[in-house]
Amino acid sequence: MTLQPSSASGNDAQPALSMENISMVFGEGDAAKTIINEISFSVSKGEFLCIVGASGCGKTTLLRMLCGLTAPTSGEIAFTGEKVCGPSRDRAMVFQDYGRALLPWRTVAQNIALTLETFGVPKREHRQRVAALADTMGLSHALEQYPHQLSGGMQQRVQIARCLAQDPKLLLMDEPFGALDAITRQGLQDEVLRLAKKNSTTVVFITHDLEEAIYLGDRVIVLAANPGRIVEDIPITISHPRNQLTTREDPQFLAHRHHVFGLLEGH
Length: 267
Ligand SMILES: Nc1ncnc2c1ncn2[C@@H]1O[C@H](COP(=O)(O)OP(=O)(O)OP(=O)(O)O)[C@@H](O)[C@H]1O
Ligand SMILES: [Mg+2]
Description:
Largest sheet: 6 strands, mixed
Bound molecules: adenosine-5'-triphosphate, magnesium ion
Radius of gyration: 18 Å
CATH superfamily of the largest domain: P-loop containing nucleotide triphosphate hydrolases
Structural class: alpha/beta
């Protein structure tokens, strides 16, 4: 597979992504509603940022703006020094609803190849690249199957493989594991974390689940609703590689859990 080469630290501390005073208002006149109010933050190259917040606080809206699918009402978003003003091959989005993200009439291999077709990768390279991505995501045995023949976890793996096919520098994930059972979710958490660190991919990961945020994140941003705004931006310095049992029992993990739980309860 042809993802970016790894860097030793996984975090080169150079800002990759920046949001400056981002606001989003939906509707006009008396019906106008501020969904996001003056949010600013930046993310370093290779950093894994998790964002948690209550339902409706604007998480998906924020991610769609980072992807370039929606323009903010005001403020500036830049990725690797360039203003974000539309979708780009450098930025890939994994949607929560994998059932609707996959094309049901295409096999796993054809779903993964969709990205290669979109970005004009020569057809003779498809088979090898699809095989490498399927291998990475544990899908090699399912290449000729259709989405309805797969479990939820497998379908989400296909969506992630399809995103990785575009060699993204920024991976945007919108509650990607929310509908999966705990064991499948933990397995995919570890795979995404391993891949992101190996390839120095910058990740913005949205979740409702504060433990998932602390387990995965180098940083956790807590949002409040009405309007969506940052309550706290918390560095998570728990060492890597993380482990589903020992990390979750680490006193630092438990202290963060108490703290973030309190913040979410208070908003
Ligand atoms: N295109 C739109 N037009 C009008 N209102 C919208 C639009 N998109 C989102 N909203 C509103 O913006 C608010 C935030 O929505 P968003 O989907 O970003 O929330 P969220 O934090 O992702 O919620 P959840 O956790 O339930 O997924 C909601 O009140 C929603 O109704
Ligand atoms: Mg959402």
